[in-house]
Amino acid sequence: MEILDYQQEIKELKKINRILQKKLERSESDRIKLEETNQKKECLLRRVIDELKEYQNKLEERSHELEIMLINVQIMQNKMSTLGSMVADVAHEINNPVGFIAANLTPAKEYIDNLLHLIDLYQQTYPKTSQQIQETIEMIDLEYVREDLPKLISSMREGTDRISNISHSLRTFSRADTEQKTLFNIHEGINSTLLILKHRLQANNIRPAIQVVKYYEELPLVECFSGQLNQVFMNLLANAIDALDESTTGLNFNDIKLNYNQITIQTTLTENKNHVLIRIQDNGVGISVDVQQKIFDHLFTTKPVGKGTGLGLSIAYQIIVQKHKGTLEVNSVLGKGSEFIITIPIY
Q: Does the predicted model carry a pTM greater than 0.70?
């Protein structure tokens, strides 16, 4: 009986041993799998840490770029503010002597008319003049003086009016911005900018004058930073002139006259009457799709080294979008021209 009991016990032990062996094998398999999982997790964790470090480095670089951009913008704002104040002062100083001259032209014309009338009376009363008077009349060419002097006064008046308009435009364009928005006449801002750029729009020995076509609808006064908005108009119009000049490169004067260079400016209210819509379009060289995607990026320019500081569209975009909560978009087709569309809220 005892042998049988031992055999049975040995059998049970073997069975238990096999079970333990299988458990051990499964445990070892689980351990290997766990190690593999931990290795994968560790590898993934290292990759995440590396990516976070790389992202942190990029973030620090971007932060540094933004700091530099902010400093540049602040420097430019200070320069523009100083320049605007100086231009306004110069315009004011110009306006004083011009106003003095213009005010004296009216009585000067009256005096001249009276003197010419007096000469007429003398000639009627004393038709026979002395030899000396007759020689003097011939020497000074009295008839020509009589004809040309009123024209001279008229030309002087036209010149003073022109200077006065330029002075007014300079003061309008360089209007200093305060920390709060002020009511502004959009059309006055555009017109003052066009007058400042008039020398670039006029004909020269290379091309005819650039035609400016304006379609102005009646607009209310807009609450804005007027000096900054004028800077946007300046940038967009100057770029349009550059594009037109580029489009005429290599063409002769007569060829250009067949397809006049033209800038079209259109203003209107949006359908909800809450925004002003300003379109500035040219029929110049146009902008490629690739450039259109980068045209508002900071420091982006299409100009070669030594040919200016760039398009100024990044600054224009910041002024319209960030400062005025509006939109600035571009539509363009190569060889046909470009259109910039500004939308700004009225209030």
A: no
